[in-house]
Design brief:
The chain is α+β, with helices and mostly antiparallel strands. About 35% of the residues lie in helices and about 20% in strands.
Length: about 375
């Protein structure tokens, strides 16, 4: 009888202890949630952001997905995790993945010359390789620079071009430095990679992404931008002009379909993308490691950019990330790979005002104290 009573007593104590642990864990989770919500709200107020979507993942699993503010100011529609934003240059990591798929299939070599795949490249581009395009070391000028998009310039952002017509425009761009000698961000390189993908597969690069990446991963909301199509849950993009919110400036349909980042997606789909990056569903581990290795320049020095990803550290914790901005939208995906923590932030405000990378890094510091921003080492962009 005494033994039985003792067992019952121990069982009660264990039950109470477990209950206290679970209650403490729940309270701690609520505290983190509340701190994140307060931080995001403060960021939105400081920068005048109409709407923002956030996802936080641990080891590829969503621990928080939430919308804040408004997706559409005119219709008073709230942001939710399913709200669709534009990626801007975050789309480059998908184009880079597509190229690496073709590398694995033996259809293209990283050190192959661009001229092997695209006819009519200018003599100045003779040394430009696929690797140079992926790593922004080609030296080819950025077609989105105001030098080329100003009135009467080479590129009319409101003009529609066929792929062939756009290519004829791009090959008029100069080489700003010797190929491989420096790093300088250039959207042109990724537009050209989209043309290479089309040449090698016979498919428009967006169709290739749909077939080989988005559909297999169940990324049902992710697609090429289209102003004409009905897109469920689509947010509106905004710009802050002299303190007043305005609708995004319009660009042509052609320039919303190029491989330098013209995608719609949401934080739900990007969570599926993040989870896939821990696996070999899309690429072999060695291919991903190449994508996340700093590029080596001709002088032997390295620059902290891989294939479609910036590479840095926060207090000796590795960070693989990228920002994006286009048409009144901005976003950041930050993957703290040593901590298996990913933070994704999407906003519907222009890059001159919204700072999604700052928000993402701040949220990361709430989840992992060692990721606080003050000691972050990052490349100049």
């Amino acid at each position: 009888m005494k033994i039985r009573r003792l067992r019952v007593g121990v069982g009660v104590l264990v039950g109470i202890g477990l209950g206290l642990i679970l209650a403490y864990g729940a309270k701690a989770g609520q505290d983190v949630d509340g701190r994140v919500d307060a931080f995001v709200g403060a960021e939105m107020r400081e920068h005048g952001i109409p709407g923002l979507a956030l996802a936080v993942l641990r080891d590829g699993k969503v621990v928080k997905a939430q919308g804040y503010g408004l997706a559409n100011l005119e219709l008073d529609v709230a942001v939710k995790p399913e709200t669709v934003f534009q990626t801007g240059s975050v789309g480059k990591q998908f184009a880079a993945t597509a190229v690496m798929m073709l590398v694995e299939e033996g259809k293209v070599g990283l050190d192959d010359k661009l001229s092997k795949y695209l006819a009519g490249t200018p003599p100045a581009w003779k040394d430009v390789t696929v690797r140079n395009l992926l790593t922004h070391t080609s030296g080819i000028a950025d077609y989105t620079d105001s030098t080329y998009t100003k009135a009467g310039g080479l590129i009319n952002l409101r003009g529609d071009y066929t792929e062939a017509e756009l290519y004829q425009k791009l090959i008029q761009l100069p080489l700003n430095f010797e190929t491989g000698s420096k790093w300088k961000y250039s959207n042109t390189g990724y537009v050209l990679l989209g043309f290479v993908i089309h040449k090698l597969t016979g498919e428009f690069y967006g169709d290739f992404l749909q077939e080989r990446i988005f559909r297999p991963l169940g990324m049902s909301a992710t697609r090429i931008i289209s102003e004409a199509d009905i897109v469920p849950n689509r947010a509106s993009g905004y710009e802050l002009v002299k303190g007043e919110i305005k609708n995004q400036e319009w660009v042509s349909a052609t320039l919303n379909t190029t491989a330098d980042g013209a995608l719609y997606t949401n934080v739900v789909d990007l969570g599926k993308w993040d989870a896939a990056l821990y696996t070999e569903k899309l690429l072999k581990r060695g291919s991903f490691e190449q994508m996340w290795t700093p590029v080596r320049l001709k002088d032997g020095k390295t620059y902290p950019y891989g294939f479609g990803w910036f590479l840095s550290e926060v207090n000796e914790h590795r960070l693989i990330e990228h920002d994006g901005s286009w048409q009144g939208f901005t976003m950041n995906i930050s993957r703290y790979v040593d901590d298996k923590l990913t933070v994704i932030v999407m906003t519907n405000l222009d890059s001159g005002h919204a700072k999604p990378e700052q928000t993402a890094h701040g949220v990361a510091g709430i989840y992992v104290a060692g990721l606080k921003e003050k000691e972050k080492s990052s490349p100049q962009r």
